[in-house]
Amino acid sequence: MAERKIFAGPRVRRIRNGLGLTQTAMAEALEISPSYLNLIERNQRPLTVQLLLKLASVYKVDLDELQGEAGGTASQLREVFADPLLSGELPGDQELIEVAEAAPNAASGIIKLYRAYREQAARLSDLADLLAREGHQTSLSGARLPIDEVREVFERRANYFGRLDEAAEAFHSNLGLTAGDDLAVALKSWLRNTHGIVVRALPVQTMPSLRRRYDRHSMRLFLSERLSAFDQLREVAMEVALLALGEVVQAELEALELSSGEARRLGRFELARYGAHALMMPYGTFLSAAIRARYDIDILRARFNVSFEQAANRLTMLQRPGAAGLPFFMMEVDNAGNRFRRSGAQGYPHSKFGGACPKLNVHAAFAQPGQVLVEQVEMPDGAGFLTISRTLEGPQAGFGERIRRTAMLVACDIAHRDDVAYAAALPDRTVAPIGIGAACRLCERSGCLARAEPPLTRPLGLDEMVTGLSAFDFQ
What we know:
The protein is built from 18 helices and eleven strands. Helix content is about 45%, strand content about 10%. A six-stranded mixed beta sheet has the order 7-6-10-9-8-11. A three-stranded mixed beta sheet has the order 1-3-2. This is Cro/Cl family transcriptional regulator. Belongs to the short-chain fatty acyl-CoA assimilation regulator (ScfR) family. Keywords: DNA-binding, Transcription, Transcription regulation.
């Protein structure tokens, strides 16, 4: 059988340097000449099976380290070069593999440096939040992806776009719907009669990886049958918002002053989504119903034939001057803790609430799918909030597919508890609320069983004689 030849010179050199050996010393142990080892390290001679076995027996080298492709390192390098700071510098996959193969030490150093940079960036972000809580404005910034810019813009401002909301309410009124009329039917009829667009639902096999697709040639809007009736309605309403309210959407978009074309496209999508909610739940009607129902989301979803997520999201938009609802805010997370949607009636309260505390009931919701969890929580400075959490189901999964499940937290200041139906689930006022923090790095609660990181503001308490409850004790 022909021997398999492996060119792994840089990795052999790395092993030799790690052991502090000269080429002569290693060559003697491997029973080859120093000149031959030199050729191997320069990839001018291959590593034979006999040499592999010799390396394994003499130096206890893992053969996988020598024989395996540098796929793991190349994958980590790909993450490094995908950072917006290096936008436009991403090499091709082959070049990344060549770097990982030819210079493994340098590749490892680049990865370590990038991880240190990301850690410092996270610390600076936490420090900026801490300073903001104390009233100090900072100008810390860095290269951001367009999606990060859009999220920050929408999270920092109130989740209310007055011109768009008023235009959507007027459009809904002009549809002339009466009690019992189906909004989805009315919107589809408007698309067909006004623009010649026909809406069709397609099976998964025809559109396996898309929610929607608009075919300009045939003038058809295709929706995936994976979507619930509520999500299909929102997709139709988004199309109507872009066509009927396009000028207003554009005006609101320009007011956001986003920095790039891609960010503006993402912002336009978010505004269309806002317009869809405004069409599905007209402001005046929805506010009146919310007050009568004492902001019970399940009653509102049934009243307007929408999903829990859609009704809860709309609650954060009720900030029309002179006709405002309670100032709710919300965030949506997945079961890994990734936060990918946050908004608020007055802007998401980053500095006051944070939302990164593992003790929030939004994380516990995953253990009780479909159940509404209500709690009163308190920040270290005494600020209190009423929190409402529930899981949300994503598009319908087929057999063998993993269900996409997220959880939504909706909250308001505890001062409004008497105006909210969910207050009935809270314990007696004499019971202490759940103590939370904005994030572990910004929280100085001692003895917290859920603490995942030490606070930035306190030194670690390294006492061999005393160990506290937290994994990160501090002085």
